[in-house]
Amino acid sequence: MKSTGSWYEVLHNGTRIKCRVRGNFRTKGKVYTNPVAVGDHVDFITKKEENTGLITKIHERNNYIVRKSINLRHRAHIIASNVDLALLVVTISKPKTYPIFIDRFLVSAKAYNIPVQLVFNKIDLYDEKDMQKLAELEKIYNKIGYPTIRISVKEKINIEALKLLLKNKNSVVLGNSGVGKSSLINTIDSNLSLKTADISHYHNKGKHTTTFAEIFELENGGFITDTPGIKGFGLVNLEDENLATYFNEMLALQSECKYYNCTHTHEPDCKVIAAVKAGEISESRYLSYLSMLEEDKDVGKYRKN
Ligand code: GDP
Ligand code: ZN
C-alpha cells in the first residue's frame, strides 16, 4: 500500500502491517532500484510477538509503471504495479488538453499494458464549439477501443457512473495539471480528501526529491494509487520498437502494408496512409504518430553523439 524506502505497508485482512524485505531482494533483479512497489502482491511472515513482518516473495506483476532512475543509468524505478485502470482526465478548455498529449499517454499505457478510461471533465464550462470538439474526440477514441465518459466534478455530473467504473479496481488518476484530478479524487471518496491534501502538502515543500506512491482504499471497494512521480507519464523508451504497434488502428493494418517494416510515412502501398486519406484513420492521430516518430529520431541522434 505504501513504501518509504525501508518500510512497506502490507494490507492483510483489512489491517496494515509494517514490513521489511529480505536482504537478498535488494541485489536481485538489478534493473530496478526498488525491490517492492505499491500494488505488488506479496507473501510475508510475522513473528508472533511482533506486529511487523518480513516480505518473502513478490508475486508476478500483471503490469507496472516505471520511471527511469535519474542517477543510475539503465536502472528504472517501479512506481506502481498491478494497475487495473488508468483514468486520463482531459479537458477541452481551461486548460485545453492537446491530442498529442492524449496520444502520447495512450502509447505509454499500451506499452505498459494498462487499460485506459478517458474522462472528459469540466463539461459545465463548455460552449457549443467545445462540445463539438468533445464529440469529435469521443468519436475518434471510441472507434479505436478507448472508452470515454463526460463528467463535471463541479456540478456532480456522472460522478456515480464513474465510481462504478472504479469499483473493485486499482486505479490511477492522471492528466495535465489543472484538469481536476485532485477535485475528482476528493469527490469520489470523502475519506480521501484529507489524505491526498496531506500528500500534496508534503510534496510542495520540495524537501524530498524522491516521492513515494501510495494506495488509498475506496469506501465502496477498490483502490486509488496516488503516484506523484508520474504526473506526466512520459513516453517510454521505444528506440528499438515499432511505434506504430502502440497505435491500435495502425497495428490493425500493419500486416496489410506492402513492407513488413513499413513506417507508414513514405512507403508505397501503405495501407495506413491510404486509411488516413480515406478518413478511416483520424488525421489528428496520424499527426501525433508522425510527431512522436520525429521525437524518437531526435532522441536517437542525441544518444549517439
Ligand atoms: P489538478 O491539478 O488536476 O489536481 O486540478 P484541481 O483538482 O486542482 O482543479 C483545478 C481547478 O479546476 C480548480 O480550481 C477546481 O475547482 C476546478 N475544477 C475541477 N473540476 C471542475 C469542473 O468539473 N468544473 C469546473 N468549472 N471547474 C472544475
Ligand atoms: Zn504502412
A few lines on this structure:
With 305 residues, the chain is of the alpha/beta class. It contains eight helices and 13 strands.
Q: Name the strands of the widest sheet in spatial order.
A: 10-9-8-11-13-12
Put simply, the count of helices is 8
* Bulk shape: globular
Distance between the termini: 42 Å
Structural class determined from secondary elements: alpha/beta
- Stretches with pLDDT under 50, minimum 5 residues: 201-210
**Integer average pLDDT:** 85
Q: Can you write the helix and strand succession as a string?
A: EEEEEEEEHEHEHEHHEEHHH
Helical coverage, percent range:
25-40%
How many E-type strands?
13
* Share of residues in strands: 15-25%
Bound molecules: guanosine-5'-diphosphate, zinc ion
Largest sheet: 6 strands, mixed
Gyration radius, rounded: 21 Å
Description:
This protein is about 30% helix and about 20% strand. The chain has helices at about 100-110, 130-145, 160-165, 180-190, 190-205, 250-255, 270-275, 285-305, and strands spanning about 1-5, 10, 15-20, 40-45, 50-60, 65-70, 75-80, 85-90, 115-120, 150, 170-175, 215, 225. The protein has a 6-stranded mixed sheet, sandwiched between helices. A 5-stranded mixed sheet has the order 1-2-3-5-4, with no helix packed on it. The chain has 8 helices and 13 strands. Helix 1 (about 100-110) links the parallel strand 8 (about 85-90) and strand 9 (about 115-120). It is globular. Helix 1 crosses helix 8 (about 285-305) and helix 4 runs antiparallel to helix 5. Residues about 200-210 have low confidence and may be disordered. By secondary structure, it is of the alpha/beta class. About 30% of the residues are buried. The structure holds guanosine-5'-diphosphate and zinc ion (ZN).
